[in-house]
Structure formats: structure tokens, C-alpha cells
Amino acid sequence: MKNQSRRKFVRLALMVPPVVALAACGDQSPSAQSLATTSNTTQIATTTAAATTAAKTTTAAATTTQVATTAPATTTQAATTVAQVLPPTPQCSSKAVATIAETEGPYFKPSSPLRTSLLEASISGTKLIVTGYVLSTSCQPVKNALLDFWQADANGQYDNQGFKMRGHQFTDDTGKFTLETVIPGLYPGRTRHIHVKVQAPNQAILTTQLFFPGEARNQTDGIFNQSLLLQMQDITGAKQGNFNFVLNV
């Protein structure tokens, strides 16, 4: 009888669900399953976000690389555009001949005003703009070169009391100069001309004259020299003459 009761107890004990074992594996409960699902979803979302961010970063890096690669080309193109609008280099051969000297004449006056325009209210005549460069015999620009101009007015008269139609200036860093004046009148016994002294810094002074093409008196003026002719052209409201002085420096 005792043995029958004992076998019945053992059989009942084996039929009881192992609750303690299930409780120990808590991820098998409905709540634990929900948490696991949420955790998995969060992990997937986080992984997806990280992947998206990495993709964007890679795309941005690629774009930056592309911009960095194309930037020098754009800069080069801009530099080429700037270079195309720069003024042309003055004509000068590798064996440039120095500008010849001419007589100073009787009417030079030192200490002329510093100015690039000789035009004043009382000055009449055809406006003339003289431009050019001062260069060395090796075709290098001479900056800060002194140019001292003096001439007769439109009536052929020199101002020996004051400084009308007289002035000095200095070349810029490219050796360029510009003078505003009027076409000089005919002085007795001479063709039309403009006097000028040119001096590179701390160098000897070149004294010479500039002449005008097509003048009848060029043929009879004993001082006239073909190499000192201005290159003339018409511009709006004025005449323009170009000349490059070449110095032995």
C-alpha cells in the first residue's frame, strides 16, 4: 500500500510543469518577448541610421573631393581670363637701340610742377595725349623714371616767365607714363616738337625731342630725326601719340 502511494506521488510530481525552470529563462515570458522585439527593432533602427549617416558622410566626402578636384581648374580658368584682359607688353626687341639725344634748346627751366596734365583754363588748341613706356635696352620697364616735358603752346610761344606747358612726372611700376597737353604750334625755324628729359633713378639724363609725322617742316628742320616720331592716331575729342623711350640702363 505504501509502495502504491509512493508511485502515485512520483507520477504526479512528474506531471507538474517545471515552473521554476521557465521562470529562470525569463526571455520566454510574453513581457520578455515584447522587450526583446523592441530591443531588436531599436538595434535595427540604430544600425539603419548609422548606415544612412555613413552613406551621407561618404557622399559628402565624395562631393568635397570633387569640388576640391575641380577648384584648381576654375582658378586656372579665372587666372587665364584675367591674363587676357591685361594690357599688352610694349614692343621691344631683345637688342633695343637706345633713344637718341637731341639739343636741349634755349628754353628749358628746372623745377617744373609735378603733374601729368599741362592743360589749364587759359590753354587752347587740339588736345593731345602722349603715352608710352620707359624701358632699358634689355626691354625691362624702368619704374620711377623721371620725365620732364616742356613745349610751345598752340601759338608757338614758350612761357619763359612761368610754367605753362611745363611739367614733370614719374613712370609707374610698369614703366608707363601719360601726358595730357596740346599739339604745339610752329616755332620760327622749327618743325612741331616737344622737349623732354628722361632719367632712370640715379642714372644719366637723356635730353631729346619728340616729333610729329606728316609735317612739311620735318624735311627742312636740321634737328628732326625719324626715330623720334610719335605714332599718332585719332581718339574721341583728341589726338593720341605713342612713344617708348629706351635708356642705356
The helix-strand sequence is HHHEEEEEEEEE
How much strand? 15-25%
Helix/strand class: alpha+beta
What spatial form do the alpha-carbon principal axes imply?
A: globular
Overall number of strands: 9
Fraction of residues in helices? 25-40%
Low-confidence stretches: 12-87
Oligomeric nature of the chains: single chain
The overall pLDDT, averaged over residues, is 77
For the sheet with most strands, the description reads:
5 strands, mixed
**N- to C-terminal distance:** 141 Å
Structure notes:
By secondary structure, the chain is an alpha+beta fold. Helix content is 31%, strand content 22%. The strands form two sheets. Strands 1, 4, 7, 8 and 9 form a five-stranded mixed β-sheet that branches. It has a four-stranded antiparallel β-sheet with strand order 3-2-5-6, with no helix packed on it. The termini are far apart.
What's a concise summary of this model?
The protein has 249 residues and is an alpha+beta fold.
Keywords:
alpha+beta; 22% strand; five-stranded mixed β-sheet; 249 residues; globular; 9 strands
